[in-house]
Structure formats: structure tokens, C-alpha cells
Design goal:
mainly beta; OB fold (Dihydrolipoamide Acetyltransferase, E2P); five-stranded mixed barrel; globular
């Protein structure tokens, strides 16, 4: 597969580059390093008190055979895109192997736009389509099938080029 993806710069967002490629996967939210509560990851940028709180989690395959096969194709698609990027990208914070399933895991992240509240824009939905902002880890739908929509961005940060999966939505299936 050869992809020649046009990139656009997001206005007023520095040097963030986006490509019009959306990914949809069915998987589950991994318990490790999950920051999908109303508190998010308050320690991500501790040196900058004005920065917005980041919200992120790892998405992985469900433990059934069909999901594992689907996620093999997800990895093939991601690899094809990574190879098509003209400069080397660091993917260590976005893609890794899940030792439990021997399949890929993808870290997706989200921040509210300036002036928007988390309660009105949080991209997590229950199975009836209602927006929900978990108050604690016990309210996050772990071990539950979820439909995840995200897109990839190439981000330059502290002199390095990184692949970032921007979360657009997670909905319980």
C-alpha cells in the first residue's frame, strides 16, 4: 500500500500537522496508564500551569480470535502509513505491543479546546450515545468492547518528530 497523504497545518496550533486519515477500531480500554477520568493526566505538563489537562488511554485488541485478527490488520495499516511519512517518526508513545495478547496497542489522547469545558466536549460515550465523564477509574468501561475513532498527527516536540493519535471518540459497543 502506498499513501501520499496531504498535510495541513492546524491554525493557531503551532507546528501540528494533520492528515485526513481516520481510524476506526473495535477494542477495549487498557487498565494501564488510563487517564480518562475527569481529572485526566494532571502530571503530563507539570512545568506549565497554564497548559490544559491531557486525557489519554491505550486501546488494545479484545481477547477473542476475531479481534486479534482485526488488530493484525490495524498494525499493517499503521506500518504502511509510518513508512509513507517522509521523515522518521518516534512511535514509542503511540504504538507498542501488548504482552497479554501479543498484539499492538495504540495510545490515543485528547485535550479540550481553549474555552471549552471537559463536561461538554469529553469524547467518551456510553452504549446509548450519552456523553460521560468518569469520576473515577471504577467508572471507566474497562474490559468492555468499545468503538474508537481517531486520526494520526505528526508533531514536532523538543526537536523530535512524534506520531500522535488524536482521539475523536470512544463509545461502548
Amino acid at each position: 500500500m502506498h499513501l501520499n497523504l496531504p498535510q495541513t497545518t492546524v491554525p493557531e496550533a503551532g507546528n501540528i500537522k494533520t492528515s485526513p486519515v481516520l481510524f476506526e477500531v473495535i477494542g477495549q480500554i487498557a487498565v494501564d496508564d488510563c487517564y480518562l477520568t475527569k481529572f485526566g493526566d494532571e502530571c503530563l505538563f507539570p512545568e506549565n500551569e497554564e497548559s490544559l489537562t491531557a486525557y489519554s488511554c491505550w486501546i488494545k485488541a479484545r481477547p477473542d480470535k476475531v479481534s486479534l485478527l482485526h488488530w493484525q490488520n490495524v498494525m499493517c495499516g499503521l506500518e504502511a502509513i509510518i513508512v509513507a511519512i517522509p521523515t522518521p517518526m518516534d512511535t514509542v508513545h503511540t504504538i507498542c505491543m501488548d504482552p497479554e495478547t501479543n498484539s499492538v496497542k495504540i495510545q490515543v489522547g485528547w485535550c479540550p479546546s481553549a474555552g471549552q469545558s471537559v463536561e461538554d466536549t469529553f469524547p467518551l460515550y456510553d452504549n446509548s450515545g450519552e456523553r460521560c465523564v468518569p469520576s473515577s477509574d471504577t467508572k471507566v468501561p474497562f474490559e468492555t468492547p468499545v468503538h474508537v475513532l481517531f486520526h494520526l498527527e505528526c508533531i514536532r516536540f523538543q526537536g523530535g518528530d512524534y506520531l500522535y493519535a488524536r482521539l475523536l471518540g470512544i463509545r461502548e459497543v
